[in-house]
Amino acid sequence: MSESAHAKPTGLAPATVRTAADLVTYQEGAVVSREVLRRPTGTVTLFAFDAGEGLSEHTAPFDALVQVIEGEAEVSIAGQPHRLGAGDVILMPAHQPHALKALQRFKMILTLIRA
């Protein structure tokens, strides 16, 4: 596959201004995700969590940056809970167990760096 094929956004038109929170919608009792950019070096994915929903503890081989854009969540890293609200960011380091839980409905941008 050519370099230009890898550089194409997967869910966001280039050079178009959009509001991040509008790019993913809540669904009752669910976690919804939408990948907006994929590159060999990483991805950017938007998530919408209904209240009480979450991602169970897991590890990843790469660093990941969480940016909360709406609502409130608890992000646990290596067993330590962190409360985040709109505008907050936290780095989840590679190989550290982490989990997320929606304290209320919340949306976030997850940037995964592979290199």
In a few lines, what is going on in this structure?
This protein is mainly β and about 120 residues long.
* Total beta strand runs: 9
Could you tell me the radius of gyration in angstroms? 14 Å
* Structure classification: mainly beta
Task: Give the CA-based shape.
Answer: globular
Features:
4-stranded antiparallel β-sheet; 9 strands; mainly beta; Jelly Rolls; 1 helix; disordered N terminus; single chain; 5-stranded antiparallel β-sheet; 115 residues; 3% helix
Question: Could you characterize the architecture of this molecule?
Answer:
The structure is a single chain. The chain is mainly beta. It has one domain: Jelly Rolls (Sandwich). Helices cover 3% and strands 51% of the residues. It contains one helix and nine strands, in the order H-E-E-E-E-E-E-E-E-E. The strands form two sheets. The chain has a five-stranded antiparallel sheet, with no helix packed on it. A four-stranded antiparallel sheet has the order 3-8-5-6, with no helix packed on it. Strand 5 and strand 6 form a beta hairpin. It is globular and about 40 Å long. The N terminus is likely disordered.
